[in-house]
Amino acid sequence: MTSGTLLHQITDYASRADPYPLYAELRRTPVSRQDDGVYAVSTYWEIVSLLRDPRLSSDERNRVAQAGEALPPEEDPALPPSFIRLDPPEHDRLRRLATRPFGPPHCPRRVHDMGGELARMVSGLVDGFQGRDQVDIVEDFAYPFPVMVICKLLGVPHQDEARFHGWAETIVSALDPDPAEGPAERQRVVQQARSEMGAYLAGLVAEHRRAPGDDMLSALATDHGPDGQMSPVELITTAVLLLIAGHETTVNLITNGMLTLLRHPEALKRLRADPDLAVPLVEELLRYEPPVQLLPQRTALADIDVAGTVIPAGASVWLVLASGNRDPRRFRDPDRFDPLRRDNEHLGFGNGIHYCFGAPLARLEARLALTELARRLKDPRLVEDPPPYRQNPVLRGPRHLPVAFGGLAAQR
Ligand code: HEM
Q1: Quick check: CB of 373 below 6 Å from ligand 1?
Q2: 246 Cα: distance to centroid of ligand 1 (angstroms)
Q3: What is the pLDDT of residues 164-210, one digit of tens each?
Q4: Maximum distance among all alpha carbons in the chain?
């Protein structure tokens, strides 16, 4: 089989439940040119070096310029790319501005201080299981929880979830390399969803500017730091990014986590007895079943020599994080789920200048969620293994995770 068909097989829905044997095949050629000219990078050190290489751009406008393609969805003149799709210096300025109301040094306690409220949210969701003997971990827990959290953090009314959920799903579908309806139609639909979500958030930002609260949108709209302020349009694109990133990824970490724990009952038992295990366990989940499997949207700005292969200027590059996480040259016994693993510098949150902005929050959410599920569900069992998966090969996780159980332990 050529490596071209191999990458296709990986993104094919039939491989969604277990792409890992295919990643192992892909790693035989650390940097492989696909039939369509894309370069897939599948080994740990090569991925890390490229994530830190300024010659590899995240700005899709470079790909378009090189390939002479039609405008991508993000190239909406009304709504420019958000900072995840920008290079320095714009990326760095916007990330610094977004960090001011979120983390150190200006707000070092923002995430930490949310801990009590997040714990109440998870226990409230599990209380809702009362009287049932089966739940869908996705619909009943792993999706609503991060949505509540990101709404609270940003200052977005939770009751608007039905409005922005559809836009968010459409926008992340842009990451699917094989859209059912064809790339041009997908591009149109994604652009429309982005504009509608942007208009919705613009309205909210205007309200927060008039009457600021203790939330990130208010801070971004009113705060003046050393870098000044985001322009109105930068603020909207950042809000779209945070709202989507805040809830389309953590759902998969929690769901993949519960699935993995139910497949490894000894780990579930240990977590129940020792909640501190949640810290290394969540790191191992980010390595073993990463919610972001690959980064498909980078462009080489110059010829780049990696592992003896030259990626030519203008080429599209896919960094297969989930494959790097199972690279035996980096991790001992990589296909083993080991919640006590040390030396676990996984690629689950990426690496380099685009390293996940929300990592501290995602970690806290996953630790609290899995600890609560482990502690409160008596005798939990998988109803379907493997469960049905979402279509998206990039943000990979179960669409539903039905779990049967024999009652609930009391709240602490
Ligand atoms: C388990 C949950 C999460 C995972 C696995 C995850 C994963 C990632 C990865 C792999 C990247 C790097 C993208 C790249 O290099 O192109 C990233 C970037 C990013 N993430 Fe997350 N993420 C998660 C949760 C969150 C949350 C909760 C937020 C918001 C509060 C967030 C906000 C962002 C932002 C804004 C970026 C772009 C950073 C930049 O370009 O400098 N993420 N994330």
Answers
A1: no
A2: 8
A3: 999 998 998 888 777 777 778 888 898 899 999 999 999 999 999 99
A4: 61
